[in-house]
Specification:
It holds the Pfam family LamB_YcsF. InterPro entries: Glyco_hydro/deAcase_b/a-brl, LamB/YcsF/PxpA-like. It comes from Microbulbifer thermotolerans. This is Lactam utilization protein LamB. This protein has 250 residues and is an alpha/beta fold. The protein has one domain: Glycoside hydrolase/deacetylase (TIM Barrel, Alpha-Beta Barrel). The chain has eight helices and ten strands. Strands 1, 2, 3, 4, 5, 6, 9 and 10 form an eight-stranded parallel beta sheet that branches. Strand 5 (141-145), helix 6 (149-157) and strand 6 (161-166) form a beta-alpha-beta unit. The model has no long low-confidence stretch (mean pLDDT 96).
């Protein structure tokens, strides 16, 4: 069968109950990205999220971002590069330490929120972060937006990169994500989300935000874990893809 990796950002709550809600998604995905305590999460949620991932056979990675919990890491911070890299290193090492306690081997790093968006278009920032990850965490793959600056930097460094696509976001004609402030940049209709996921999984053409044809391959598709109906969407996505002969796995 064909296959596609489905990932979700988890561990962004504060309590055991939040982790239990996250765990409802895990039977339907193949990879999760766990908050490292800066934009969200804490030692309890990291430990429980990693344990839940182990129990469900879901590959786990680190999900660091700007250290700004008040705004959930969704606003760009004017940090010195050295300060930012130090924060990212602290976040990833914190999760690595917890993972060692739980008996989980981390697989990758995916940046969060505003930092994820900032490296899409800032080649210098992408270079700094990729160089840092390749040196400090050589065993961890980088997950990032397909066709953006982080992918280009990873290619230059020869570092493993997981190309990510989004089932519920419109793309600009240059294959970058349409900013959320644009009308209809987020796809609300489930059937349209499923169809875009199928086309991304198979590298088939789909429509851009301005209805131009786009076509490019991805390795993983993001399912937003903070959506109120995330478990139902995850199940629908799994069933839809299987009905088309595509398995959800790496």
């Amino acid at each position: 069968m064909e296959r596609i990796d489905i990932n979700s950002d988890l561990g962004e709550g504060t309590s055991s109950a939040d982790c239990d809600r996250d765990a409802r998604i895990m039977p339907y995905i193949s990879r999760c990205n766990i908050a490292c305590g800066a934009h969200a999460g804490n030692l309890l949620t990291m430990r429980q999220s990693l344990d839940n991932a182990r129990k469900h056979g879901v590959t786990a990675g680190a999900h660091p971002g700007y250290p700004d919990p008040a705004r959930f890491g969704r606003v760009s911070l004017a940090m010195e590069v050295g300060e930012l890299l130090e924060s990212i290193g602290e976040q990833v090492n914190r999760l690595l330490s917890v993972a060692a306690e739980v008996g989980v081997v981390l697989d990758h790093i995916k940046l969060h929120g505003a930092l994820y968006n900032d490296v899409e278009t800032d080649a210098e920032l992408a270079e700094h972060l990729t160089d840092f990850i390749a040196r400090e965490f050589p065993a961890l793959k980088i997950m990032g937006l397909a066709n953006a600056e982080m992918e280009a930097a990873a290619l230059r460094h020869g570092h493993p990169f997981i190309r990510e696509g989004f089932l519920d976001r419109r793309y600009l004609d240059k294959r970058r994500l349409a900013p959320r402030h644009l009308e209809n940049a987020v796809i609300a209709d489930l059937d349209q989300c499923l169809e875009q996921a199928l086309r991304l999984a198979r590298g088939l053409p789909f429509e851009s935000y301005r209805q131009a044809p786009l076509q490019f391959p991805v390795d993983s598709i993001c399912l937003h874990g903070d959506h109120p109906k995330a478990p139902e969407i995850a199940l629908a996505l799994l069933q839809f893809l299987r009905s088309r002969g595509i398995e959800v796995r790496q």
